[in-house]
Amino acid sequence: MLSLIVLLVGAGALVGVYGRWSASIGWHSAEAPAISFKQPGEVASTPGQRATTWVFFTIAGLFLVQALLGAAAEHYRADTASFFGFDTPPHSY
After folding, report:
1. What's the pTM value of the predicted model, to 2 decimals?
2. Are 61 and 55 in contact, with CB atoms under 8 Å apart?
3. 25-34 pLDDT, tens digit each
4. Closest CA to 68 of 86, 84, 82, 55
5. Cα 5–7–11 angle (5° rounding)?
6. What is the DSSP letter of 92?
7. What contacts 82, CB < 8 A, 6 or more positions away?
8. Cα separation of 13 and 17, whole Å?
9. Are 87 and 81 in contact (CB under 8 A)?
10. Could you give the CA distance from residue 29 to residue 21 in angstroms, rounded to a whole number?
């Protein structure tokens, strides 16, 4: 507990000292220039963003397939006589 308290007090002191005495980029520096943002319709997606979209959907599909096959395998392991309401042929083991 003592180390956590010292860590938090030290981090607070460091941030306080930095903000108080940093003349160029501290909290009391000159006002920052106004930031202008583009509207979402004005910004085109990059090729990297489009590729990331396809990768995301591919991974999501593969995860869905893995989850469904895992659920099916465990259900079949627990109840070998039927598979989600469908009768399975008898086994000889």
Report:
1. 0.46
2. no
3. 555 556 666 7
4. 84
5. 120
6. -
7. 88
8. 6
9. yes
10. 10
